[in-house]
Amino acid sequence: xxxxxxxxxxxxxxxxxxxxxxxxxxxxxxxxxxxxxxxxxxxxxxxxxxxxxxxxxxxxxxxxxxxxxxxxxxxxxxxxxxxxxxxxxxxxxxxxxxxxxxxxxxxxxxxxxxxxxxxxxxxxxxxxxxxxxxxxxxxxxxxxxxxxxxxxxxxxxxxxxxxxxxxxxxxxxxxxxxxxxxxxxxxxxxxxxxxxxxxxxxxxxxxxxxxxxxxxxxxxxxxxxxxxxxxxxxxxxxxxxxxxxxxxxxxxxxxxxxxxxxxxxxxxxxxxxxxxxxxxxxxxxxxxxxxxxxxxxxxxxxxxxxxxxxxxxxxxxxxxxxxxxxxxxxxxxxxxxxxxxxxxxxxxxxx
Length: 351
What we know:
Elements lengths: L2 E6 L14 H11 L3 E5 L1 H9 L4 H19 L3 E5 L6 H10 L4 E6 L9 H8 L7 E4 L4 H5 L7 E4 L21 E6 L4 E4 L2 E4 H11 L5 E4 L9 H7 L3 E6 L13 H7 L3 E5 L14 E3 L2 H13 L1 H18 L2 H12 L16
Parallel strand pairs: 1-2, 1-3, 3-4, 4-5, 5-6, 7-10, 7-11, 11-12, 12-13
Antiparallel strand pairs: 8-9
Helix pairs in contact: 1-12, 2-3
């Protein structure tokens, strides 16, 4: 049996936000369902536990030493790193020396762009010399190319959905509790040509389309949900607005897209994301300006049967293209040299 050690954020201690719907458990589910033995290791939780009563720095150091001992016991064939920022590159280098057969993949689900915070780019770059594959949730090859190293692969990572996690089929409901949902923190969002707080986006939609029942969450302290309550929030609305911090990066989206489409909501998103290359106009509702968005929200509010039809078609396609088994197989194909780009209906590794 092939053993994969998945090091990432499972948030069993902090119970932060949408921890049940995060990408890490979906990837592990997909790997297990594809027949692999998977060992989940939360580097941050382990560092917190090991540093209690001493210091964070001491906890991180102890976790890195424990990780080496753990690998000596479980003998992984591959390691998958998901934002495992507390794992030192030196630790991975030592593991590769001890286990010459070991393959290592890192994935990153934050945006990369010349305008983004430099920290995320640095986090990816810090491990490039000790990983074989780097996957990022953007398809822009120019942006991905900065992570290319001789002999290593860099590519696009879709945000996966998982029917055991995103369990709703909102396209089946003609009259949901709310018409439209937008769940996000209150950082700035690229809305048309402006960058404005997420709460202001909500306020503008309410002003322009007052007849629409809008459910907003996450923008104020008393509207921030986590765990099962977060999932249930997606079971209230027929439409979901997928608006990220930047919407002009090719194939970049926050994992909100997987939550929206995995739960059967009608997804509305900026055309500049480039997802119109993968989805048709009768699968996702694309808009080019805020004014067009307002009109489309009202149109699909008035005609629920049309909303249900488009949402169903989009959900079925998203679940087909980006389900947890497909994304997990993509990773293992890359890890174990079985990769063929023609097996996937989305951009894969960069040239």
